[in-house]
Amino acid sequence: MSSQKSLLEIRNLHTSFPMREGTIRAVNGISLSIRQGEMLGIVGESGCGKSVTGLSIMRLVPFPGRITAGEVLLEDTNLLSLAAEEMRSIRGSSIAMIFQDPLTSLNPVLTISRQMTEAITTHTELKGRGARGRAVELLRTVGIPSPEKRIGDYPHQFSGGMRQRVMIAMALSCRPRILIADEPTTALDVTIQAQILDLMKKVCQEIGTSIMLITHDLGIVAGLCRHVAVMYAGRIVEMTDVGEMFASPRHPYTYRLLTSTPRIDRRKERLQPIGGLPPSLLDPPEQCLFAPRCEFAVDRCWKEIPKLEEVREGHSTACFRSNDSLW
Amino acid sequence: MIFKSMTKNRVDELATSKSRGWKGVGESFARFSQSRPALVSACVLLLLLIIAVFGPTLAPHDPIKIGTGARLQPPSRTFLFGTDQFGRDVLSRVLYGTRLTLQASIIAVVVAAGIGIPLGLIAGYAGKWTDAVISRFIDILLSFPGILLALIVVAILGTGLTRVQIAVGVSLIPAYARLVRGSVLSAKENVYVEAARAGGCSAFRIATRHILPNIFVPLLVLSTTAVGWAIIIATSINFIGLGVQPPTPEWGADLGAARSYLGVAWWPGTFPGLAILVTILAINLLGDGLQNALDPRLKHRMIMEK
Amino acid sequence: MIRSGSRWESVSGIGGVMSAQDALIDVQDLKVQFLAMEQFTAARKRSRIRAVDGVSFAIQRGEVLGLVGESGCGKSTISRSILQLIPITSGDIYFNGQNLCELNERQMRRIRRRIQIIFQDPYASLNPSMTVYQTIAELLSIHHIAEGREKRGRVREMLEVVELDPGFIDRYPHEFSGGQRQRISIARALIVNPEFLVADEPVSSLDVSVQAQIINLLQELQEKFDLTYLFISHDLSVVRHISNRIAIMYLGKIVELASTDELFRNPMHPYSKALLSAVPIPDPEVEIDRQRIILTGEVPSAYNIPAGCRFNTRCWKSMDVCFSVEPEMTEIEQGHFTACHLYTR
Predict the structure, then answer these.
(1) Does residue C124 belong to any structural domain of this protein?
(2) Which candidate, A54, A48, A64, places its Cα nearest to that of A10?
(3) How many CB atoms lie within 10 A of CB C157?
(4) I need a labelling partner for A79 at 20 to 30 A (CA). Which of A167, B5, B47, C101 fits?
(5) CA nearest A50: which of A100, A94, A96, A84?
(6) What is the domain extent for residue C75?
(7) Which tens digits make up the pLDDT trace of A302-320?
(8) Residue B295: its pLDDT value, please?
């Protein structure tokens, strides 16, 4: 792995939602980086803060959430310190984001043509017919048949898979450096999912866009990503390259996640699930948040927050017992 | 069948730490109290309720006896609201009238709800022909303005206090039936209704135990509005003299009777009129406050908890 | 007694040939059609959606039949049909030899005690204004299984069975997580001691770690109470894990039916192959070497099912006959059925 400078670097990001009952610390100190052309997967279950991380990078955290600490460096610029105008010019052009449900992400009363050309004219010098031509080309690239005709259609006239392709086309229309994809295929059928993931991989390789793929599906990560960060309760608990993570996970949560996922190529007698419930993020205590569900927890786990530390080259984990051979 | 199994896997935690149930009422109350107009209205209405109950004892003079004071006296220390064309104390009349007004509105709402809710339930749940027939019936009722409908009923039943109250109730039936029918139509689609059917529940059970409790909130809000309408309709009918007969003290009737004297004496009409105004305003604001308080604005929190 | 008038001569269950008498559930040529206004077209006429277009299968007592397919294939419609929650256009559904389609609502209500269902959405399938106790005990009252104080005891027992703290008996659904709510739904379904359980995507709305808990629970309960399941899901990994046999559906028809091991060892129908190859496997080494079959084209609209084999718009092995003649379900190897012209030339 060449020591390329990172394209995007997050340093100690904290995002919280102050509520009447207390503060929900959705992102509780995250640091990671993405290099040019890399595909990074962020894996976790619902409520772990992965979506909020993506939104924080884009500074699109919904009210009443606020980014309370940290830096998000796009090359050398801290996105969190930019004025609203400047951030708007970054969004869509340097960093693009696609979401889970393409139906609600697209404006139902505007044609695809309107929505795509809007993005293009805002961020590039193309106008009018030039922008439209570019949009048609993009639709063709993402595999929409007869794009010249379909570009005048409305979102509801496309199927789920096609809408997601349109979203990808829109996101890539300004050749962003980074694409943040938040559960892009969760709402799609599995055969369509395969098409979309395949498409994302190809197009991003062509343009050279880095992808930050946020998902709960370990299978998708295994097939698509080079590096993986596992999130739990607002923190990163393990970060390494994908082969290493599946072959030798060093955090109990990662390990248990792998043993509790049924696989299509194997038949196990019994899955080994993780007992208990995901934790509440409301004013979390100063301890390892996985401890209540961890079968390997010791005293220390209940008193201190484990820091993300390197246990092997390129492999970090946040567990006090990472050096013990637990499994 | 006793099963001692799998206890080690038991899930012994709750997702949310506090039990709602009655506490949920407390939360709603807290939200309600945050709105000043709503709180003030609630107090006003409470006051009115007290007056309605204790009116007779609070009134300083006999409201019916003619000649208690001089005719058409302006407000003074003995007669705080002045006297009307028969020398009766306007204040006492207004106080006594409170009871009648509130009584009318409650009876009207009871009649309207008592008939409208079952109608709406049957129409919404049974569907097809039953729904078509009932809906047309409701449409016919709806095509008449509320007052007109009440007047028609009065024409059929005759004048008199109770008859007016029933008439007002009838005029409000469509509002309830419509709301319940609409709510039932959408509540029917809920998965738990399907689950109840799959479990073997009869239609009656589903309607009463699964659908009705879950449409309670809009019904409550409608009822507050309905009370307001009932008061307007009742007082209007009394205003034109078709309801209560003199000398019964009633706000609408008194307002009507004072019409001819408005040029010389403003007080016999204004005070009953003000009473009507304040009551209806308070009811409407209360209804707004209730709607805001009971509105499930928990979407915010749902997103975080998932 | 062998079924007459059916397409199949034999139905292999877990082992060997079985006659129709062993079948707890026997669905024969089920067709369910909906009338709907076709959306967003100029023609304002009502079109028929053939949601289930001639489906036949049998489930043996004690087995788990997995029903897999993507959205719109009709699997949920089948579950609703078996429970008689929606009207059927044609076909017969036998439960223990009794034809459910011939029963009136009152008779069906008595049968409902023996057939139960678990729904997909744990947040919607419980009445928010009823406590856990009320929800579960309701079925006890309706079917006159228990009355009064005895009900409470039974509900507490059942909560233990589904691994919930019985102390939660008077709480409301919103206080529970998705996985816990699903357990409550399971408790509700099992309190009446049913013979047959339809699980309609029971874990699809749950987090991965919770999914495993519920899958395990369902497996344990099946063994303990000798239940028969129809397990419906779009997730092949889950279905593989829990089912004895699997039926794959596409656009309203079953395209392949075989025992689990057999299906994964030797998938025959091109759609089955594509489906299997599309499911991501959480193992990077396997994933990298995998031969992915990427289907081209979109799923045809339910209003406009293609003539001939309905998979012909996306099939890479289609022949001329596939565009004119609809293939029939045939037994190719023992217990392994498929509807594809490639095998029935």
Answers:
(1) no
(2) A54
(3) 16
(4) A167
(5) A100
(6) 2-114+194-343
(7) 999 998 888 888 899 999 9
(8) 66
| DSSP secondary structure string for all residues of A52-81 | HHHHHHTT-PPTT-EEEEEEEEETTEEGGG
- Rounded to a whole number, what is the distance in Å from the CA of A9 to chain C's nearest CA? 25
Residue type, B194: E
Residue among B188, B189, B71, B64 nearest B120 (CA): B188
Give φ, ψ of C214 to 5 degrees.
Answer: -70, -40
State the pLDDT at residue C249.
94
Does the beta-carbon distance from A276 to B305 stay under 8 Å?
no
- Alpha-carbon B286 to chain mean position: 11
How far apart are the C-alpha atoms of A35 and A26, rounded to whole Å? Answer: 25
Residue C140 has a pLDDT of 92
Percentage with pLDDT > 90 across chain A: 32
| A277/B13 touch (CB, cutoff 8 Å), yes or no | yes
Asked if C175 lies within 8 A of B194 by C-beta distance, the reply is no
Report yes or no on C242 lying in a domain.
yes
Give the residue from chain B lying closest to A17, CA to CA: B304
What is the chain A residue with the closest CA to C240? A264
Rounded mean pLDDT of C139-155? 89
Instruction: Please tell me which chains touch A, using 3 or more CB pairs under 8 Å as the contact test.
Output: B, C
pLDDT of amino acid B263: 84
**Could you give the angle at which helices C132-142 and C149-161 cross, rounded to 10 degrees?**
120
Please provide residue A183's backbone torsions phi and psi, each rounded to the nearest 5 degrees.
50, 55
Residue C90 domain flag: yes
What CATH number did the domain enclosing C303 receive? 3.40.50.300
Share of chain A above pLDDT 70, in %: 98
User: Which residue type is seen at A19?
Assistant: M
Give the model's confidence band at C227: pLDDT under 50 very low, under 70 low, under 90 confident, else very high: very high
Nearest-by-CA chain B residue for A26: B304
- Inter-chain residue contact C188 with B6, CB threshold 8 Å: no
Of A4-8, B185-189, B248-252, least confident by mean pLDDT is: A4-8
Contact A223 C284 (CB under 8 A): yes
B301 touches chain C (CB under 8 A): no
| A47 Cβ under 8 Å from any chain B Cβ | yes
Query: What are φ and ψ of residue A309, in 5° steps?
Result: -130, 155
In the predicted model, is pLDDT for residue B302 greater than 60? Answer: no
Kindly state whether residue C126 falls inside one of the protein's structural domains.
no
Q: Round the average pLDDT of chain B to a whole number and report it.
A: 80
Whole-number pLDDT of residue C39 = 57
Contact (CB<8Å) A45/C298:
no
Please, which residues have CB within 8 angstroms of residue B69's CB and are 6 or more apart in sequence?
Answer: B61, B78, B79, B83, B87, B88, B89
Residues of chain C neighbouring A192 (CB-CB closer than 8 A): 70
Average pLDDT for chain C: 86
CB contact under 8 A, A46 and B15: no
Residue C298 forms contact with A (CB below 8 Å):
yes
Q: Do residue B13 and residue A275 have CB atoms under 8 angstroms apart? A: no
User: In chain B, what residues touch C201 (CB-CB under 8 Å)?
Assistant: none
User: What is the distance in angstroms between the CA of the first residue and the CA of the last residue of chain C?
Assistant: 31
B192 inside 8 A of chain C by CB: yes
Distance, in angstroms, between C4 CA and closest chain A CA? Answer: 36
Distance (Å) of CA C281 to CA A36, B75, C79, C208, C292 = 26, 89, 28, 14, 12
Q: What is the percentage of chain C residues whose pLDDT exceeds 70?
A: 91
- Cβ neighbours for B294, distance < 8 A, ≥ 6 positions apart: B28, B217, B220, B221
Q: Chain A: nearest CA to C285, how far in angstroms?
A: 7
Cα(A263)–Cα(A129) distance, rounded to whole angstroms? 49
DSSP for C63-94 reads -EEEEE--TTSSHHHHHHHHTTSS--SEEEEE
pLDDT at residue A24 is higher than 60 = yes
